[in-house]
From TrEMBL, chain A:
GO molecular function: 2 iron, 2 sulfur cluster binding; metal ion binding; nitrite reductase [NAD(P)H] activity
KW Metal-binding (keyword) present: yes
NCBIfam families: nirD_assim_sml
Protein name: Nitrite reductase small subunit NirD
GO terms of biological process kind: nitrate assimilation
Higher taxonomy: Bacteria, Pseudomonadati, Pseudomonadota, Alphaproteobacteria, Rhodobacterales
Protein source organism: Aliishimia ponticola
Stored PANTHER family: 3-PHENYLPROPIONATE_CINNAMIC ACID DIOXYGENASE FERREDOXIN SUBUNIT, FERREDOXIN-RELATED
From TrEMBL, chain B:
Pathways per UniProt: Nitrogen metabolism; nitrate reduction (assimilation)
UniProt GO BP: nitrate assimilation
The keyword Flavoprotein is assigned to this record: yes
Stretches assigned to the BFD-like [2Fe-2S]-binding domain: 420-467, 482-531
Residues annotated for siroheme binding in this entry: C683
Lineage: Bacteria, Pseudomonadati, Pseudomonadota, Alphaproteobacteria, Rhodobacterales
Assigned protein family: Belongs to the nitrite and sulfite reductase 4Fe-4S domain family.
Record domain Nitrite/Sulfite reductase ferredoxin-like: where: 556-620
Originating organism: Aliishimia ponticola
GO molecular function: 2 iron, 2 sulfur cluster binding; 4 iron, 4 sulfur cluster binding; flavin adenine dinucleotide binding; heme binding; metal ion binding; NADP binding; nitrite reductase activity
Name the UniProt record assigns to this protein: NAD(P)/FAD-dependent oxidoreductase
Length: 109, 811
């Protein structure tokens, strides 16, 4: 694993998200109301909606375009046939860390 | 074998435990010399709070008294500080100048309270909460004195509650959004705040301290960042602790945030050990006694030459304030692959949340009923597999192995004297009797018994009773709850928010029994609107509870870009504005510039990252957001009116501009569009708007509830008035009535169809009610009538990606 620091926890609003640009597309980093952090593909498999712009509730996000709801733990869309890639994240001393190797390997797949 | 010399620095809770282990197991191993900066021996520091609250005396919390030290021949140096250590010569020097030699040295120096270096922090009357002296200073405050506590964590709240119990007027200032945020989630934090407020303590959240104001060298008030002054006679800072490591660092020990120790509690220098809050073990610091006692056991074993190793364990927290029953354990934040189980009982003020990961319980937060806390704590520590009992886990050990809880059988099992309606004190027996006597629906039960006739929270229970008593003869009503997160309709939620004065999202989730942590994309935007409409001063709009367009202040397009529509008041513009729009279109490569159906110009296809910059450019030309994206005022279309048109009867353009300037920025249940036409020819299409005004010779015909979208419907006449001012008043009052009553996402025409135009007319006909509505609207506008673009343009960073890993990944 090659963890890289992508920013401070408080740069993401509670129940909000920010994006990270990668060579293979945008990754959304979510912060829930309870403070957990999740990373997943920013692209909705339905029609490409930017998930980082959706409403974050519990440990889910709702796509802003047509309201598909994704479980951020698994990436599965609830009640729909589709899912998004999720990526390991760590938070250490208020900094958010992503695994760079994983990012490139998985978003390529 | 002659005894070795052990010098201990600090007679605290951790080193006290080491001494107990030593004198019990190996009384002949060491001659102990005990230094303590405080002029006393070891007492139970955590019980200072009961001493403060008056529930205990200092004498009752002494752990080791003179007799203890004497019988174990411990050489006590109380009130003496160790000031230097020579680890090569193996000596310590105290502040009396004495130099003593050791064979083994033990650090137990605890920690120092952190004092924020605000201007005035050194005034008399500014204290921390750490020792007996601080406690006595607080106990010295009499009835009617005022105290401010900075810090809403465990210590700050115990200090506040203790002083409040003595009749002191206490305000707690906390920088975060909820109390004890390290141990509690927002829901439990809400309940804790409520209990403390019931004790008369004032809580100010998200409050930044700026300066401590003094008079004659003594504290007089705390000034907040927003300019508020909180007068006080004593100011307690309880904002955290820092391991007390200065002496160790000077002596050359390896020190990070705390004194580095290994699993045997040995520091980096031979023959020197450390225990307690002053240490750092494997990156962790310690602030609760449970792990310190484990450390003490290990340190004693190491001193006796035995093998032992310190292992960090999960911790649990309780707050020692009477009536605030909370419990938190394990890890309930930060992490992947987790699932929540939430239980709320609004009537009893109970909230429980369990966090599960990979079939195991990893965290628990509880408020109001913590009886099962230790059982959950056990499951967390032992890593028990809970898959089997997942369904009933939240109900605690009593339910395990029993039948699954079914709400109907639970109601059926209640005894006749069980209270159902708390407001009116109606018990089950009374309701069942009424049902048997012929009250076979909710309305009839309400009318005959008063049950559920007040706040309505027991409606569900009454319906269940109807079902249990009548069986198949009773049809559960089909009123649609907002969504799966709750059992209440929009109308019920609006009513209860007003009746129970619920002023935060947490209050709604808890008091109305939400089944999820913080709602979903359906209910949260609605609740956010209801709260800001009813409590404009107490509640602030929450961007994270709004759909993307309203959060971004732009319409998202199907390709993820945005559209930008500046306001053109009443459809009027000028060459300077048009030039600014043209320049912006050039500068940001706007692919499409379109005239909208709302008499203004739309710049379509702007990149999200560019939004703050294009807004700043438009702002410079005096252009503000057109709110083309909001559930709020969109446009006021006008025609040219008397200024130019040969048929115009009144200044329709001028009235349109005035209306737009009065209403812009306000949030409403759905979007609101107006139009003003200068004569009945109606060139502004006023008769299909939410509010449409037709100017006539005798004045203004104000009509409402039109539609020209998915439905098409002509407006209905609300009133005819003679003056422009009256037309504005009636319009504003109508919009406010709509804001206060309509269901989220009902346009005015849908809402009026539900309540009836007659009801609306009746309300607005009353001059006092009209005045109240206008005043309420103005109050809300004092906060919301401003340009969101200007605000967001100043925070351009938030619109950029958090990081760009394109280069990183390519490497
Ligand atoms: C830009 C504009 C079309 C245009 O190019 O003229 C427009 C564009 C959109 N309209 Fe509209 N409406 C526009 C005038 C209208 C009008 C005409 C008017 O305002 O006089 C109507 C009929 C009147 C009315 O409001 O009912 C109209 C009825 C709707 C509706 C149906 C509303 C209803 O209650 O029936 C929706 C859907 C909704 O709001 O839920 C809608 C929704 C939309 C949205 C916001 C769809 C969306 O949610 O993304 C469109 C955004 C497009 C984009 O990508 O930017 N638009 N829309 C007009 C902007 C006016 C402005 O200056 O603010
Ligand atoms: C009001 C209050 C309530 C608390 N409530 C709880 C609770 O409910 N649950 C819980 O688990 N924990 C609680 N704690 C925390 C708990 O009290 C501490 O974790 C514990 O006391 C730390 O023990 P220690 O031995 O490391 O340090 P201390 O008990 O602070 O002892 C350190 C001692 O070393 C002395 N010293 C420092 N430097 C020198 C020097 N150079 N020379 C000589 N002496 C020196 C100090 O004067 C002090 O007496 C509470 C703390 C406070 C203040
Ligand atoms: S009518 Fe309105 S909502 Fe429909 S496509 Fe046109 S702009 Fe979009
Ligand atoms: S693009 Fe996400 S739901 Fe349609």
């Amino acid at each position: 694993m090659s963890w890289i620091d992508i920013g401070a926890l408080e740069d993401i609003p509670l129940r909000g998200a920010r994006t990270i640009k990668t060579a293979l597309g945008c990754v959304a980093v979510f912060r829930t109301g309870a403070g957990e952090v999740f990373a997943a593909s920013d692209r909705c498999p339905h029609k490409g909606g930017p998930l980082s712009e959706g409403i974050v509730h519990g440990q889910s996000v709702t796509c802003p375009l047509h309201n598909w709801v994704f479980d951020l733990n698994t990436g599965a869309a609830k009640g729909e046939d589709g899912s998004i890639a999720t990526f390991p994240v760590r938070v250490e001393s208020g900094r958010i860390l992503l695994d760079a190797a994983e990012l490139t390997a998985r978003s390529a797949a | 074998m002659s005894k070795q010399r052990l010098i201990i620095i600090g007679a605290g809770m951790a080193s006290g435990r080491v001494i107990e282990h030593l004198v019990e197991t190996a009384p002949d191993a060491y001659d102990i010399t005990l230094f303590n900066a405080e002029p006393r021996g070891n007492y139970n520091r955590i019980m200072l709070s009961p001493v403060l609250a008056g529930d205990k005396t200092y004498e009752e919390i002494v752990t080791h008294d003179d007799a203890f030290y004497c019988s174990h021949k411990i050489d006590c140096r109380f009130g003496q500080k160790v000031t230097a250590i020579d680890t090569a010569a193996k000596t310590v020097t105290s502040d009396t100048g004495e130099v003593l030699a050791y064979d083994k040295l033990l650090f137990g120096t605890g920690s120092n309270p952190f004092i924020i270096p605000l201007p005035g922090h050194d005034l008399e009357g500014v204290i921390a909460y750490r020792d007996l002296e601080d406690t006595q200073a607080m106990m010295g405050l009499g009835q009617g004195n005022r105290a401010v506590v900075i810090g809403g964590g465990l210590l700050g709240l115990e200090a506040a509650a203790g002083m409040a119990a003595r009749g002191v007027d206490v305000t707690v200032v906390h920088i975060m959004g909820h109390l004890m945020e390290r141990q509690l989630d927002p829901a439990a934090g809400y309940l804790l705040r409520k209990s403390l407020e019931e004790k008369g303590i004032t809580i100010r959240l998200e409050a930044n301290s700026k300066e401590i104001v003094g008079k004659d060298g003594k504290v007089r008030a705390l000034m907040l960042e927003d300019g508020t002054e909180l007068p006080c006679d004593l100011l307690v800072m309880a904002v955290g602790i820092r391991p007390n490591t200065a002496l160790a660092a000077e002596a050359g020990l390896a020190v990070g945030r705390g004194i580095h120790v290994d699993d045997q509690m040995l520091t980096s220098v031979s023959d020197v050990l450390a225990v307690g809050e002053c240490v750092e073990h494997d990156g962790a610091l310690f602030g609760l006694v449970a792990p310190l006692y484990d450390q003490a056991k290990v340190a004693a074993q190491t001193l006796m030459g035995n093998e032992a190793a310190f292992v960090q364990k999960t911790l649990s927290t309780k707050l020692k304030v009477t009536g605030c029953d909370l419990f938190s354990a394990g890890d309930f934040a930060e992490g992947e692959g987790r699932e929540d189980i939430v239980f709320r009982d609004p009537a009893r003020g109970v909230y429980k949340r369990l966090v599960i990961e990979a079939g195991k319980l990893v965290g628990a937060v509880m408020y109001g009923d913590t009886a099962d806390g230790n059982w959950f704590f056990g499951l967390i520590k032992d890593g028990t597999d809970i898959e089997e009992m997942r369904e009933t886990l939240i109900f605690g050990p009593a339910y395990q192995g029993g039948v699954a809880a079914d709400p109907l059988s639970a109601v059926a099992a209640l005894p006749p004297e069980a209270e159902i309606c708390g407001c009116n004190g109606i018990c089950k027996g009374t309701i069942v009797d009424a049902i048997n006597a012929g009250a076979t629906d909710l309305g009839a039960v309400k009318a005959t018994t008063k049950a559920s006739a007040s706040c309505g929270t027991c409606t569900g229970l009454v319906e269940q009773l109807l079902q249990v008593t009548l069986g198949d003869d009773f049809q559960m009503p089909t009123a649609q709850p907002i969504c799966g997160c709750c059992d209440l309709t929009h109308e019920d939620v609006r009513r209860l928010i007003k009746a129970q004065e619920l002023k935060s999202q947490e209050a709604v989730w808890q008091e109305l029994g939400w089944k999820t942590l913080n709602g979903c994309h359906v209910c949260r935007p609605a609740v956010n609107f209801y709260l800001l409409a009813d409590w404009p001063l107490e509640y602030r709009d929450d961007p994270q509870s709004r759909f993307v367009n309203e959060r971004k202040h732009a319409n998202i397009q199907k390709d993820g870009t945005f559209s930008v529509v500046p306001r053109m008041w009443g459809g009027i513009t000028n060459p300077a504005e048009l030039r600014a729009i043209a320049d912006a279109a050039d500068k940001y490569n706007v692919p499409t510039v379109k005239v909208t159906g709302g008499q203004r110009i739309d710049l379509l296809g702007v990149k999200g990252e560019d939004l703050p910059y294009i807004w700043a450019d438009l702002n410079k030309a005096g252009l503000v957001s057109g709110h083309a994206y909001s559930k709020g005022l969109r446009t006021v279309k006008t025609c040219v009116g008397t200024d130019h048109c040969r048929f115009g009867t009144q200044d329709s353009t001028g009235l349109g501009i005035k209306l737009e300037q009065a209403l812009w920025g306000s949030w409403t249940p759905h979007k609101v569009k107006l139009a003003v036409s200068g004569c009945p020819r109606n060139c502004a299409e006023a008769t299909c708007k939410d509010v449409g005004i037709i100017c006539v010779d005798s004045g203004y015909q104000v009509s409402v509830a039109g539609a020209a979208g998915m439905d098409v419907k002509e407006t209905e006449r609300l009133v005819d008035v003679a003056s422009e001012a009256e037309a504005i008043d009636w319009t504003v009052a109508f919009v406010q009535l709509y804001r206060e009553n309509a269901k989220y996402l009902d346009r005015p025409y849908k809402w009026v169809a539900k309540v009836g135009l007659d009801w609306v007319k009746e309300r607005l006909d009353d001059p006092a009610e009209r005045a109240r509505l206008i005043e309420a609207f103005e109050l809300s506008q004092s906060i919301y009538r401003k340009d969101p673009w200007a605000e967001h343009a100043a925070k351009a960073d938030a619109f950029q990606p958090l990081a760009d890993l394109k280069l990183e990944a390519a490497k």
